[in-house]
Amino acid sequence: MAVFARPRQALAIAGVLGLALGVTACGTGSSSNSDNNNADSAECAPYEKYQGHSGKKVEIYSSIRDLEADRLAESWKQFEDCTGIKVNHDGSAEFEAQLPVRVDGGNAPDLAFIPQPGLLARFVERGQAKAASADTKAMAEENYSADWLKYSTVNGTFYGAPLGSNVKSFVWYSPKMFQEKGWTVPTTWDDMIKLSDTIADSGIKPWCAGIESGEATGWPATDWIEDVMLRTQTPEVYDQWTTHQIPFNDPRVAEAVNRAGTILKNEKYVNGGFGGVRSIATTAFGDAGLPITAGKCALHRQASFYANQWPQGTKVAEDGDVFAFYFPAIDPAKGKPVLGGGEFVTAFTDRPEVQAVQTYLASGEYANSRAKIGDWVSANKKVDLANVANPIDKLSVEILQDDSSVFRFDGSDLMPAAVGAGTFWKGMVDWINGKDTATVLQGIESSWK
């Protein structure tokens, strides 16, 4: 399951905030900035291509709220000042439920940040989403890999570039604990299992995990399966699985589930700080990694956004209290599989000023503007690592920009909601609670049919 609109993100960025952003135009709608007293022409030069829409308004709807919404406002303020386009952003905790209601009711926003390719496709199928302009498409192709752009391409038509991203293929740990114990960060799956055995033999449960998340309970376990699926199978088989070209109970899926089970259902390995295997089902995902800070477990597989879950004052850095390493591949020679998520800037109107904002949000200028503000990850190739101060964000961007990385989107977000956010989640809870793999996968497969 992927990004910002889901319950897991609500823990990190909660509340509702509508932002009406002030604007000071750089000019009168032409490409000239000579009449502007608030920004010189050098500052506004990157925005000349977006001129000609002074006084126009663009409405954006998303799940991004509170501090993150304030950062959004800051990230595009220079664009507003130099183009005269006023960007009004509304962030809602009910985004996923309300966006279809608004669109179906004829009250669609101009742009929406959609974190689920399946939801985007729903609007396309109903003729509600607008194809991206040629300028937006060209900007996106310049700045994003084909792996990313295919998730907002429906029936051969491109609908919008990614905005923010996250990397899920991480294992959190304590650098201090590793140094004290003489443990080394593993670079292969086999090394990780050997390390797990070493930690277990020392009297510490090596892994801690938690999949409780209210109505979304089960989603962290689906991320485990997806990450392992990318490591036991080719990216093409992963794609076949998420699109149901192979059944959910295919032997290759069972292999991935069982391999994940060698950790998650191993009483020797889990659940450090909480209890046995079944405690995973009742441990809140936001609390699941915290035993690392108390020395009660050593490893916790969770996404880059888990950096927001550590107690206040926790230093997240390679020499800090906690950090993360790449969830190792089984065969590194076959590349670096990366599971992640992100949201896509999707248009519901095609007015010129809306297209201008959509194009700008796909640009390197925007990505670096937002990166400088902090606590943000993007797959935009133009992001300068010097602008990414947060160590875990920097590591995430490095992985996304690594030519050996093979990116795939969160599988449950690519599946029909009844499966990806329904039987898959529930099936993983049943699996943790003792139900066998074959029965669980057969149940999910039956629900897809």
UniProtKB/TrEMBL annotation:
The keyword Transport applies. It comes from the Bacteria. Transmembrane segments: none annotated. Belongs to the bacterial solute-binding protein 1 family. Keywords: Signal, Transport. SUPFAM superfamilies: Periplasmic binding protein-like II. This is Sugar ABC transporter substrate-binding protein. Residues 1-25 form the signal peptide.
